[in-house]
Amino acid sequence: MGAIKAKFSAPGGVHPAYHKDLAAEQPIAEMPLPASLVISMSQHLGKPATPTVKKGDTVLRGQVIGEAAGFISAAVHAPTSGTVKLVAPVPTAAGPRATAVTIEPDGEDKWIDGMAPCPDWRQLEKKDIVEKIAAAGITGMGGAGFPTHVKVSPPPETAIDTLILNGAECEPYLTADYRLMVERAADIWEGALIIAKALEATNIYVAIEDNKPLAIAAMAEAMPEQAGAAHVVALKTEYPQGAEKQQIFAVTGREVPAGGLPLNVGIVVENVGTTLAVWDAVVNGRPLTERVTTVTGGPVAKPGNVLARLGTSSADMVEFCGGTSSPVAKIISGGPMMGFAQADMSGPTTKTTSGLLLLGPESVHAYESMPCISCGRCVGVCPMNLMPNELSQFLEAEDYETAEAYNVMDCIECGCCAFECPAHRPLVQHMRRGKAQVMLNRRKQ
Amino acid sequence: MMESLRLVVVLTIICSVAGALLAVVHDVTADPIASAGTKEKGDAIMQVLPPCDNNPGEDLVKVDADGTAWTFYVARKEGRFAGAAFESVSAQGYGGDIAIMVGVNAEGTVQGVQVLAHKETPGLGAWISGDKFRGQFAGRSIADTKWAVTKDGGNIDQITAATISSRAVTEAVKAGLDIFTANTSAITGN
Amino acid sequence: MSELSIVSSSPHAHSGSSVRRIMLDVIIALVPAVLVSLYFFGWDAFRLTTACVVTCVAAEAASRKWMGRNIGIDDLSAIITGILLAFNLPPTLPTWMAVVGSVFAIVICKQLFGGIGYNPFNPALAGRVMLLISFPVFMTRWSEWTIPSPIGMDAVTTATPLGLVKTTIGSAGALPFDFTGSAMLQLFVGNQNGCIGEVSAAALLLGGIYLLIRRCITWHIPVAYIATVAVFSGILWIHHPQQNLAPHFHVLSGGLMLGAIFMATDMVTSPVTKRGMLVFGIGCGILTMLIRKWGGYPEGVSFAILLMNAVTPLINRATRPRVFGAPKGGRKQS
Amino acid sequence: MAFYKELAKGLWKENPIFRLVLGMCPALAVTTSVENSLGMGMAATFVLICSNIVISIFRNLIPAKVRIPCFIVVIATFVTIVDLLMNGFAHELHNSLGLFIPLIVVNCIILGRAEAFASRHPLWLSIADGIGMGIGFTLGLTVLGATREILGAGSITVWGDLKWTVAGYEPMILMILAPGGFIALGCLLGGMNHLQAIAAKRKGTIFTPPAHLDCRSCVMCKFGK
Amino acid sequence: MTMVIQTVLTIGGAGLVCGGALALAARFLAVKEDPRVAEVDGILPGANCGGCGYAGCAAYAEAIVLEDAPINLCAPGGAEILSKLAGATGQTAQMAEHKVAIVLCGGDVENAPRKFDYNGVADCQAAHTTGGGDKACPYGCLGYASCSRACPVGAIEIVDGIAKVHPDLCISCGACVRTCPRALIKMVPYARKIHVMCSSRDKGPAVKKACKVGCIGCTICAKLAEDEAIKMQGFLAVVDYDKELDNDAVIEKCPGKCIVRI
Amino acid sequence: MTEYVLLIIGAVLVNNFVLTRFLGICPFLGVSKKLPTALGMCGAVIFVMTSASAVTWALQHLVLVPLGLGYLQTIAFILVIASFVQLVDIAMKKFAPPLHAALGIFLPLITTNCAVLGVSVLNVQLQYGFLKAVVFGFAASLGFSLALLIFTGLREKIDRANPPKAFQGVAIALVTAGLLSLAFMGFAGLVK
């Protein structure tokens, strides 16, 4: 069984240098427990979880330390057993501060008696699967961190016919999903079947960029016999093939309506890492307490893919990868296109940390931005067909109404525009600010 | 209702007063305006005609050619025909119509040309009003001149970069001269 | 770490393109035309090009200094303005007029709006048109053409082909031109009278190809522009071959090649969308032919592009792409 | 004292052209020479003073509701008078100002002053205001006219043959054509703004250039309301 | 003479017809707008700064006439406009106390270190949401001049990396207060001159690490100030501007040197 | 027919009311901030200028000229135009509220706009017949609209530009109008 080629191609897109060779062939290595773990209550999209422990409490691995605080929220579990040292706000990767629980591991890494393993998941009801996913605190592990239990329980009137596993990993440098697909193909497939059951989806596609032949082969190899409608789709290598709407179009030709969600066209997209976490939660009864992260970039001595507990600090991970061998100019949580730059290496790993990228001074671009020269390149590469040139100028002039009329809210912040911009304009930052302001204005009304 | 009535009344009164005032001013200025208007044309006529002792502005000969009425202002000295002036208009100007006054002496050669009105580009086509361009028409007659600008192979030096304006004036002069030549007897009264 | 790390918004990668690089490419693309102009016009071409470039750069630096902004001439855009303005001047023009035009182009048309990126009109063209209107005598005085002209212009050697048409039609009858292959070849390589940079279609095309390869321009504007002129003039020619020039003559003469490849494609003043570029090119073509055929000026390229510059914001507005996922056919309107 | 204050403000502090940005149409159209500028300025000044006088005298008799139509009639009357007088006694000038003499009627400055000043102030001050504003307007036109004529024609024509020509200057014709009008006024306005910003800085205050035409003193749109 | 009569009749007639037509037409159309709104709108300065809390001068005029809104909200107008408004509306009102904006942060480039090099949009909101702002102190003024741009009269200037309001230029419209992403700007009575130039709510050690002139919550000033004119809010000393405070001791004794007289 | 086409081209492109004749500068500079507003203004101007041409032509040739009162032109025109527009405004409000909502606010604005009075006076000066006067009025207003729309597009760009402080606002708008007028010079000679 081979892969089918993607039929469609979304508008725009760019071809950044991939640099995946740094870590691609490094097998996933499990990291030892660090001296301290800082677990943020805001590792997902939506309301931060409410801490359920206080300073001095002892916790076991898998114990709930933060309760979901609403419908769009997710529970947070202790990644190991130990003592709670502090409950206080710390900065998140994206910037704003959020409450975090600091745990000092006791070294025993003792699991709590929590959810029961359930290898025979085929007997489970739809709602049981959703419950298990919710209890495991699983969120999208590709970057946005949307709570998975919400995604897999669409409103009853919405029929979902297709599940797409997102293995595109179009972000340069990152190889975590690639390694997972190569090493854990069968488990990922099983996870996909679990989600498909919950959704009652009949088609499952695994979408992988065609620059990852090994992953394509591994996933094709492991494709389950019984699911007649399972396919591996090879996408053209182009950023951002991993963006949900663009990927849906590339795989199925369906266009998610502007401002809408994939479920509007009967599709759910899950990251392969998330799928594996679902498998782990349902089959093994283990909540999400660790994830695979790519630690890479020029200054990293031995780039690799690390299985790390949530809460592990960047410094610890870099240390595990041999430390730095050259000066670091920029620390990025995530990939170079959509990741967040960090002030220092104190930031903890979260459910959405797909990579930790260190860039040396030679690959950091700190330019003075110039006025827009209307070259139109950003318009050409925008996968959403927006006009970032105009938008950024409206936003510079703080004209949020016009920006809204020019569909600023449809921006997916993929960074293609700023990547191409010869004037080095901080287009994505403008968009981000604009979107925040438009949301604020909407709420005021 | 009172309010509306007041509106009407006040407006009517003010208008009436204004009207009266204007009528008076008009009365006072009517003559100067009329004479200023005729004087303008009269000056032009006098400038293009040889010395005379009648008032050419009032000594008119009308000629009809191809449905266009031409008016010739005839100058006489001691009762004899001294020359005639006529107004000629070219629609071929760069900016629109060009109106000129051409004077012809008794010998049938051009005495002078004045530009009455034009909309040519200032600093360019507008030089048709200049002495240098107008001056070269004097002394030419219909027969001894090739009535075209040099660029078209004629005898009239065009203004640099304003060939179209120059050409229009040249054509206007020639058109009038043609009429004059064709109707010489009627105009001179001989 | 001794030094602070850099934090910025994503993306943290960049394609490496820069305004300076684009401008440098344009300058490189202009080199063949500069060489041709030096070959045909010699000292005059050198004199005018140098005067324009030096004045433009100096005016840019001076006005930015006066406005209290960083000097910022290192984006090289002033050099391009200088070269393009010089390209649009007749070889006999006094140097001081070239200087006046350059100052107007840079100070009034560019820096008053805030410098690069903000100017609504192409500065070089605006400077050229300003000179044309201000000093029409000097701007339409061509050099005595020394190389024997093969296209039937020997009678009047001091006019451009298009200028000749303007003054000939209406007085003479048929046009004194030769549309045969060899004559066209001469026109193509640049053996004709005209502004110093516009004569050689070959050199300009060479530059255009370089720009296309370097992705500095797309094909849309030049092709739409030239095709429109060809079609428009072709229709006229078929209709009235005696009174009109052949389409290939129209395409190869005057400033069309220069305009279509280097001026109309100026990023700042042309539309950003592909559809908009096509509209822009077609508009330029129609206006050019309108002015060439019926207007008061023999050449309409500069005016046509300036006029289309003026409607560029409207074109941009009208050709907003359909947002991905928005209903087809209908755009979300503001 | 108040008289002089009202008189002086039109010259600079509330200069109709450079500060209030009013009466743009004639300011652009007739300023091709100093002569035309002066002529237009004087015509407008005459209308301004006369209408201010009449309106100030009758300000308490005109009902508020119809004041704008009444003002317009008064102004139109004086404009017609100027038109007739100029046609009779300054025929050449009348020809070159042409259309813009009747258009003084709709010049915002005049109706604006009638509404904003003359209808609220006693005769004496209204006269001062009319003179000040008129001279200010004339001054603005003349500065613009001089700039354009010197650059565009290389000469200054004050009246008829009273004319100086700059020898050896190749005039920039553009300046006396339409685009030159816009550009010259724009640049002069920018220059004036710059001077005012410097003056404001010296006094420790803030100067904001006029962002749009000062419609506040133009009441055209209130006609019939 | 006929001419005069004809003229008078024509123009008079025109006046009559026009006036009559307008009067008749106006009768069809009841005037819906309250004329007082236009009057009040005419009095207001037209700066549309929004300082009154309404969307522009016209909206405020409507509120004054139709909703009996207080007439003393127009700060840019000052006493002159107030008296005119009082005349127009019959309301009597005292000018609201003259307030001016102040940026409660003293951490300039000298005193407050940065934690990283920020490279991006020069705007406080943008900087604040990118890595949490480059200032080590999470409460301090970022100095990207958002308030300065929002100020309609140019009364805010960035000096040594932090925003400073010129009290004499401030028209107390409040635009800056709404713009600051860190809520550092407060409207304070013009007469009050002593301020705690810090807004950090962190504990002493954290403040000390982030800024040399931060409030460490030592409470000395709160004890020194008479009438509780300075109160502690958590770890931050806050001036109570309703109370008189003219005590140089609080300035001298502050170990963080964050209390100043401006 | 050709005559009318040339008349229209002349009034729209060659002797554009705003850009070469300097008529209607106030609304040109004042109502060019936003495209929708400019569009409304264009509609109102086209309507008013066309109908004002008709009305004033009738006034001139049916009343003033027969009575020999040509010198009353200015005062009579302004009165009649102003009242006419006012009446239309009132009538429109009553009978066509949607239309009034779209154009209404602009009607009083241009009551006494110099372009309207200008076109009426020009019709007299150029001695146009009735049909020609109406066509000229229509064409002139089209020219105004064209200039206004183009300028509005430019204005939206310029408002986001970064001119030196002294040139912000009206000054840079005037310079832009000058450059636009410069471009329009290209149409010179298109119609004799």
Give the tally of structural domains of chain B. 1
Please state the CA-atom Rg of chain D, rounded to the nearest Å: 18 Å
Low-pLDDT runs of 5+ residues of chain B are: none
Mean pLDDT of chain D: 83
Global Rg of chain B: 23 Å
- Portion of residues in beta strands of chain D equals under 5%
Number of strands of chain B: 5
Question: Helix and strand string of chain D, N-terminal first?
Answer: HHHHHHHEEH
Q: Please outline the major beta sheet of chain B.
A: 5 strands, antiparallel
The largest β sheet of chain D comes out as: 2 strands, antiparallel
Helix proportion of chain D:
55-70%
Instruction: State the end-to-end CA separation of chain B.
Output: 76 Å
β-strand number of chain D: 2
Overall geometric form of chain D: globular
Notes on the structure:
The complex is a heterohexamer of chains A (445), B (190), C (334), D (225), E (262) and F (192). Chain B has four helices and five strands, in the order αβββββααα. Chain B has 190 residues and is of the alpha+beta class. Chain B has one domain (48-188). Chain B has a five-stranded antiparallel sheet, with helices on both faces. The mean pLDDT of chain B is 81. Chain E contains ten helices and nine strands. Chain E has a two-stranded antiparallel sheet. The longest helix of chain E has 27 residues, at 2-28. The radius of gyration of chain E is 27 Å and the shape is elongated. By secondary structure, chain F is mainly alpha-helical. In chain F, α3 (35-67) packs antiparallel against α8 (130-158). Chains in contact: A-C, A-E, A-F, B-C, B-D, B-E, B-F, C-D, C-E, C-F, D-E, D-F, E-F. At the A-C interface, α5, β16, β17, α8 and α11 of A face β1 and α1 of C. β1 of chain C pairs parallel with β2 (117-119) of chain E.
Task: Produce the secondary structure layout.
The complex is a heterohexamer of chains A (445), B (190), C (334), D (225), E (262) and F (192).
Chain A: E1 4-5, E2 28-30, E3 37-40, E4 50-51, E5 58-59, E6 64-67, E7 76-77, E8 82-91, E9 97-105, H1 126-135, H2 148-151, E10 162-166, H3 176-199, E11 203-209, H4 213-221, E12 230-235, H5 244-252, E13 267-271, H6 272-284, E14 290-296, E15 304-309, H7 314-320, E16 330-333, E17 340-342, E18 355-359, H8 377-381, H9 388-396, H10 400-405, H11 416-420, H12 427-444
Parallel strand pairs in A: 1-12, 2-15, 10-11, 10-13, 11-12, 14-18
Antiparallel strand pairs in A: 3-9, 4-6, 5-8, 6-7, 8-9, 14-15, 16-17, 16-18
Helix pairs in contact in A: 1-3, 3-4, 3-6, 9-12
Chain D: H1 2-9, H2 24-29, H3 34-57, H4 67-89, H5 91-97, H6 108-118, H7 123-153, E1 155-159, E2 162-165, H8 178-203
Antiparallel strand pairs in D: 1-2
Helix pairs in contact in D: 1-7, 3-4, 3-6, 3-7, 4-5, 4-6, 6-7, 7-8
Chain F: H1 2-14, H2 25-30, H3 35-67, H4 73-95, H5 97-103, H6 106-109, H7 114-125, H8 130-158, H9 170-184
Helix pairs in contact in F: 1-8, 3-4, 3-7, 3-8, 4-5, 4-7, 7-8, 8-9
